[in-house]
Amino acid sequence: MLKQIFDYLALSSLSSIGKKIILVGGFAFLLNYSSFGQTEKELRLNLINPGIVWENPIGTNKTIELNLGIGYNGSYPELNTEYGENGFQGQLAPFLDVQARSYYNIRKIAENGRRSRNFIALRYLFYGPRIAGNVRTNENYSMAVGPTWGFKKVYEKWTVLGSLGPIYYFDLTGTGGIFPINFEFNLGYRLK
User: Fold this and answer.
1) Looking at residue 77, what DSSP letter applies?
2) Which of 13, 144, 145, 173 could pair with 169 as two cysteines, CB 3.0-4.6 Å apart?
């Protein structure tokens, strides 16, 4: 059954170590449920890396965020056919960003009157075929998975979001590597 799940998520090309990391991280996140409760649902438009985002509660202080859009991405060195080129390499491509988040120290922050929330998350990124850019990849699709730490600040209808963490990136040819710090910063307008 796990093989079908990995095939469905396009993760079948991962090494056995990569699959174990994903399984352990996923199970650790799922076992961390305390009790089910409501937090707010959020629909927003991200402006810096354009996309539409749906964040849905799945438990007390736990959410799933789905972000679908067309955005820019730097290159992953081992996935390029022109590995070693000088200068910035980037691309504009459709993407799907899925994060299973666990928010923490919410009470402490609320007591101080701040509107931010910190979280840890397990993140899965999928990039489709490039629309523009100077990256020449082995495969039209690339994926990345890894833990991330982040913050989210809400100002009425606006949301500022940032996160960083290491990722394991790979493509469907079995090529992959580790990027030590993947950084995300976004500004979103809340629709709901």
Assistant:
1) G
2) 144
